Amino acid sequence: MHIETEAKFEVKRDDLESVRRQLIELGASAFAGPHTEENELYDFPDARLARSGCALRLRAYGNQNLLTFKGPVQSDPLLKRREEIETDVQQAQAVKTILSRLGLAVSFGYRKTREILRIEQGEHTLQVCLDETPVGCFVEIEGDAAGIKQLAARFGWTEFITKSYVDLYLERRR
């Protein structure tokens, strides 16, 4: 079982390139160039996944598709921790049909542009995502808790965001 540990930090759109340059100066390397992601979250009509704190997401970008299950968020004041199970999907339409036959439907969809970098932070390898969304720009750091906190401190980021992009969209689009 994989436990995803991450935090988001909101940055101004004009600061994203500066953050990218600083990360590269610190030794980060490009992992995935800028790309657009289409995300669809699936749930039952009674919203049982959302009510239990879980999520089932189908993400499409380029020629790739990922199906991801996310378990309930574990209690942590600064970081978001939750079980994550992810697999590549070769035939997205077939998966959508299977989900529909199981009684699931798209409950929410959103798009973002993302660039992914990898950086060594002490003993830790972190994945840093530079995300542009209609509700703001964010730096999302995933990896070991200590490494996330160390990198955040290097940038002076103190406002840890643990909300999902779905929650941010719903909150800011009201």
Can you give a write-up of this model?
- The chain is of the alpha+beta class and 174 residues long.
- It has a single domain, classed as Hypothetical Protein Pfu-838710-001 (Beta Barrel), CATH 2.40.320.10.
- It is 25% helix and 49% strand.
- Strands 1-5-4-3-2-6-7-8 form an 8-stranded antiparallel beta barrel, surrounded by 4 helices.
- β6 and β7 (124-133) form a beta hairpin.
- The longest helix has 11 residues, at 145-155.
- The protein is globular.
- It starts with a strand and ends with a helix.
List its salient traits.
Hypothetical Protein Pfu-838710-001; 174 residues; single chain; 8-stranded antiparallel beta barrel; 5 helices
Short description:
By secondary structure, this protein is of the alpha+beta class.
